[in-house]
Design goal:
The protein is an alpha+beta fold and about 120 residues long. About 40% of the residues lie in helices and about 15% in strands. The protein has helices at about 20-30, 30-50, 75-85, 85-95; strands at about 60-65, 70-75, 105-110.
């Protein structure tokens, strides 16, 4: 083996960042869509925390569609705020790493995981 061989014993390879290795590992395992959704969820949560702090924990990105993101919202007031800021949020989501350029924000009435602030569980009466 030559001194130029990066795989030669005693020669250290340059370390890789885990984040750089994940996309290829996910592709090989058939988990690309799950990884893309996880990144989108993380991006959405960060955008909401930055731009609509009262909505933190009260909404959750649940699905990516070709032209939309689908967000579960448990409270009508949060849904109204997200609708008012939809263009701003979609622009920021499209520009953020882990986000995607989409045209529509679709809101569902499902309670996000964790229930959001003040949620005690059970049906509303």
């Amino acid at each position: 083996m030559s001194d130029q061989d990066p795989e030669a014993p005693g020669r250290r390879r340059r370390p890789h960042r885990v984040g750089d290795l994940l996309p290829e590992a996910a592709r090989r395992l058939g988990l690309e869509d799950e990884l893309r959704l996880a990144r989108a969820i993380s991006t959405w949560d960060a955008l909401v925390a930055e731009r609509v702090p009262p909505a933190v924990g009260a909404c959750r990105l649940v699905r990516l569609e070709p032209d939309a993101i689908v967000v579960a919202v448990g409270e009508p007031i949060v849904a109204a705020e997200l609708r008012m800021r939809a263009l701003e949020l979609l622009d920021a989501f499209g520009a953020a790493p882990g986000g995607a350029r989409v045209r529509h924000l679709r809101l569902t009435g499902e309670r996000p995981a964790g229930g959001g602030p003040g949620y005690r569980g059970g049906p509303r009466v």
